[in-house]
Write a structure and sequence with these properties.
Number of helices: 6
Strand order of the largest sheet: 4-5-8-11-14-17-20-23-27-26-25
Largest sheet: 11 strands, mixed
Number of strands: 28
Radius of gyration: 29 Å
Helix content: 10-25%
Shape: globular
């Protein structure tokens, strides 16, 4: 190859990365590049296992180490001499992250040394933000750090106990280009314009709590597949007010890379244990809006994923992003055994529940096909389409303080209601089998009757 072929080699390399790495999924082991990338970022980008796994995808066709066999669903023949350059690829990977993207990658020893000699305050800028459509000459303020638990109305219950003492931040929050990471287990509050974030994604991880109050807002960057807020690894989000908006997607813009709008809030487990599940609560006053996409699908407003992950919606507005030709994003998306409890709220956009996820509605509701209608205990009405796939469930739960005309109540009412028994649809085989059972029963009855008649007849 000559120098004239450098551009061709670059294009081929990019195509190979897009085709083999970004879409990589091992169905046998359940290993996904995208899911592992999220875990890598959530854990501070300090683990070489992910880097080596990606290197193995390139070098041998699967993510497994060279001394382990590849799954039948991923393996194909590659040049084994590529294993000689594993260490070099690891070094290049870290250099790109540090030098090109200016992200903080450190060894464990460097992290200890850095924490002992540096304390990053929330107001200290960490990186130069990329330009927006309307440049501003004012520095973007950072969210405040406060060890105090926010004061909630009497009817609201805080799920996280207050810390015993205020801890200084270690590496949190750390601004990574257009991403801010909160990962020190503290309590953060966004309550006004000075502490709000625009053109920024927030990653909340490692037992950290973020509270969004009235007057605060978080708006994701343009054209990104990262949500405005990603909650992971035992972390908690409390939405008392303000608004959260997903990424606006338009390929015609200078930064245009994505066709579909981004999600506003993604609540995730982050690991493979229920102990690392995250939690979210929403109250009246908060608005959660998926990103618009004039050329594709609108972004989802709220996405809950992973077993043990739970969200309780006491109120608020959830709106799927607007897409082309009316392709609106989902207001609620639940999957992989996550559970969302809905006690009130306004929802614009369908809901989707799949893979053993659950959506539980509390109040007087009826389900007709995919449509759920009724009213909550506060008398606000609901009319939404909820589609279920692969074991997803919609559960309607009456509440004791509300009498329902169309559904049974948890407390006695003056006019009891009786639900009709469901009609079981039987296949032709089941019908024939039941007919056979009936014929056998009838024949047995006739034989028994004839036998009894023969015994009694001589004495009658």
């Amino acid at each position: 190859c000559s120098d004239e072929s450098m551009e061709m080699r670059y294009v081929v390399g990019m195509f190979e990365w897009i085709d083999r790495v970004q879409d990589y999924f091992d169905s046998t082991l359940g290993w996904s590049y995208e899911d592992e990338l999220y875990k890598f970022v959530d854990n501070g980008m300090e683990d070489d296992v992910f880097i080596d796994s990606v290197s193995n995808i390139v070098s041998r066709g699967c993510h497994s180490a060279h001394n382990l066999p590849c799954s039948p669903s991923t393996y194909y023949q590659v040049n084994t001499n590529r294993f000689l350059y594993g260490l070099e690829r690891r070094t290049n990977f870290k250099n790109i992250i540090k030098l090109v993207f200016e992200l903080p990658i450190m060894t464990p020893a460097e992290i200890v040394s850095w924490n002992e000699n540096n304390v990053v305050t929330p107001t200290e800028p960490q990186a130069t933000k990329r330009p927006t459509f309307e440049p501003t000459f004012e520095e973007t303020p950072q969210p405040i750090m406060d060890a105090r638990i926010p004061t909630l109305p009497p009817t609201q219950t805080m799920v996280t106990s207050p810390p015993t003492r205020q801890e200084p931040p270690t590496r949190s929050p750390v601004e990574l280009s257009d991403m801010t990471v909160y990962n020190n287990g503290g309590n953060f509050i966004i309550s006004n314009q000075a502490t709000s974030l625009t053109d920024e994604s927030i990653v909340l991880t490692k037992n950290t709590t973020l509270t969004l109050e009235q007057g605060g807002y978080i708006a994701a960057p343009l054209n990104t597949d990262w949500p405005a807020i990603r909650i992971s690894i035992s972390s908690t989000f409390i939405g008392n007010g303000g608004y959260v908006t997903g990424s606006y997607a338009d390929p015609s813009l200078i930064e245009g890379e994505h066709v579909d709008g981004g999600e506003a809030i993604h609540l995730n487990n982050g690991q493979s244990s229920p102990k690392t599940a995250s939690h979210a609560e929403f109250y009246d006053g908060i608005q959660v809006i998926g990103g618009d996409a004039p050329s594709g699908f609108g972004g989802n407003a709220f996405h809950a994923n992973g077993f043990g992950t739970t969200a309780i919606i006491y109120g608020g507005t959830f709106i799927g992003g607007e897409g082309s030709t009316g392709e609106q994003g989902l207001s609620i998306y639940v999957l992989n055994s996550a559970i969302v409890h809905i006690r009130a709220g306004t929802f614009e956009g369908d809901m989707r529940v799949e893979r053993r996820g659950q959506v539980r509605f509390y109040g007087c509701f009826m389900k007709n096909g995919a449509r759920v209608t009724g009213r909550f205990a506060d008398d606000s009405e609901l009319d939404v389409t909820v589609r279920t796939y692969y074991g997803g469930e919609v559960i309607l739960i009456p509440v004791s303080e509300q009498e329902c005309e169309t559904a049974p109540s948890a407390s006695p009412t003056n006019t009891p209601t009786i639900s009709s028994q469901p009609t079981v649809v039987q296949s032709n085989g089941s019908i024939m089998l039941n007919a056979s059972y009936g014929l056998i029963f009838a024949s047995s009855f006739i034989l028994i009757k004839d036998y009894v008649a023969r015994i009694i007849w001589p004495f009658s």
